[in-house]
Amino acid sequence: MADTSTAAAPAGGTETPEFIDPVGESGRRFPPKGQPQITGINRIGLWSLYMKEVRRFLKVHTQTIWAPAVTTLLFLVIFTVALGRGGREVLGADFASFVAPGLIMMGMMQNAFANSSFSLLVGKIQGTIIDVLMPPLSTAELMIGIVAAAVTRGFMVGGALVLAMLLWPGVSLEIAHLWAIVWFALMGTLFLSLVGLITSLWAEKFDHNAAISNFIVAPLSLLSGTFYVIDNLSPLFQMVSRFNPFFYMISGFRYGFLGESDIGAGADPVVWAAVGLLVLNLAFGVLCYRLLKSGWRIRS
Predict the structure, then answer these.
(1) Could you read off the pLDDT of 182-213 as tens digits, one per residue?
(2) H-type helices in 203-267, by residue range?
(3) pTM of the model
(4) Residue 206's domain spans which residues?
(5) Where is this region: Disordered (predicted)?
(6) Is residue 193 in a domain?
């Protein structure tokens, strides 16, 4: 007699598979599909992205760290030879000591921009942008990792420049206000890192990146009071200079070494410039976050 205790097979001769309870070997139930597994800050992912970006420019440190330092040092050599003779003093310091802090800050900002503006652009051109977008990183973590690496490169270039200029005869880099050195260096590199990341989102080829660097970043850096005080300019150009955020970054950084700046008399104008740069960075940070979160020009 046939056993009638088994369930009849459905039409087609195949049995319906039993439901398997999704429990792992450890006895813990697997979470539902689509439920995030990383809550809070993905510290490992953020650190991995940061180290990836840092190692990317350290692999070619001769090009990314030492070459910009040497190029910037050549500005010091040329301008001190051309304009620094005869004991010329600016803001109470000899010309070489006046120019040196501005050149350090200019080198830091330009290289922070160069690093962040390259991060996403090379991925879009080579078709590897998915490697950055797929990992379990939030928009804020992605932005922080790229920007932090760019700030790191800026500070490394600044350190190389300080070392080189300390060895250059006639340059004195005595610290007058340490807070100003640290704050304006951070605000300057952070601002250019954010601008570079926005450029990396917008650009579709290296020519676009080079256009922003050559026609916006470089002119604003060179015309920001790096080699002169704006009091020597006409009233019209003084007003134009005061609308240039690079002017406050470089003059504030110089104030940390010389104790004097052409932002204004005393410490109050420098403090207000420090606050203004913080507000500017917050505004650009929000803009960069929204563009990155929207997938503008990086997601089809």
Answers:
(1) 999 999 999 999 999 999 999 999 999 999 99
(2) 206-212, 218-222, 235-242, 245-258
(3) 0.85
(4) 43-293
(5) 1-36
(6) yes
